[in-house]
Amino acid sequence: MTKEYRQPVYAPPKGAADLFLIRHGESAPARPGIAFPMKDGSGDPPLHPQGERQAIAVGERLKTEAFKALYVTKLTRTHQTAAPLAAHLGMVPIVNPDLHEVHLGDWDGGLYRIKAAEGDPIYRQVVEIQDWSAIPGAETRKAFFTRVRRGLRTIADAHPDQRVAVFVHGGVIGAALAMASGSEPFAFLGAANGSISRLVVQGDRMIVRGFNETQHLDHL
User: Fold this and answer.
1) What pTM does this model have?
2) What is the pLDDT along the chain (220 residues), one digit of tens a residue?
3) DSSP labels for 161-184?
4) CA dist., res. 116 & res. 131, Å (int)
5) What gap in Å lies between CA 102 and CA 197, rounded to an integer?
6) Cα-flanking dihedrals φ and ψ of residue 51, to 5°?
7) How crowded is the C-beta side of 187, counted as CA atoms within 13 Å?
């Protein structure tokens, strides 16, 4: 009989961590003249009711995965999104100090969302140069990407050969996948609320395994 060589099934490299990056559910709307609550300089809105429904759907989608740990950021919306899955698995999420959303300086607290919707010239400049530094007091892309990489590396180093769920923000997912793929900096911005992306991390090496899975949200 002739020996057969079938196509291989992907497996992460030895010692790598398999990270599921989940964007938090939809957060409360921004309103002119009413700033979001703040935490350590970052806007900290709770989930919108739709975001709560998205969090439940995320928990249902992922409750059979063999996660060794759950991670969240310092911000309320990631804790609320992680809560249904944490309840299913009987796990307590760990706060990572580096994976909160990009600091938006004078536009934090909800103003960024308003300026973007109105097509403010500074927002258009941010998109053009693919860097938040055009906003007064905002974090630079270089600084943001550096801390996102550090945060992911910290988690991966703690979980070799393990699968981990990491509840984060759209900017964090965009930064992580841009660094992993070598794409333009803003190429992966816009992951849907409640979406799942996947990244395999081994030391400084990052491999994209998925982006913006949303099938579990189709019924909402």
Assistant:
1) 0.96
2) 899 999 999 999 999 999 999 999 999 999 999 999 999 999 999 999 999 999 999 999 999 999 999 999 999 999 999 999 999 999 999 999 999 999 999 999 999 999 999 999 999 999 999 999 999 999 999 999 999 999 999 999 999 999 999 999 999 999 999 999 999 999 999 999 999 999 999 999 999 999 999 999 999 9
3) T-EEEEEE-HHHHHHHHHHHHT--
4) 14
5) 18
6) -65, -35
7) 11
Residue found under tokens 């923000």: 169
DSSP secondary structure letters along 108-168? TTTHHHHHHHHT-HHHHHHHHHT-GGGSTTPPPHHHHHHHHHHHHHHHHHH-TT-EEEEEE
Q: To the nearest 10°, report the CA torsion of 79, 191, 171, 80.
A: -10
Both tokens of residue 33? 């003249």
Residue 151's Cβ-side half-sphere holds a number of Cα atoms within 13 Å equal to: 28
Q: How many residues does the chain have?
A: 220
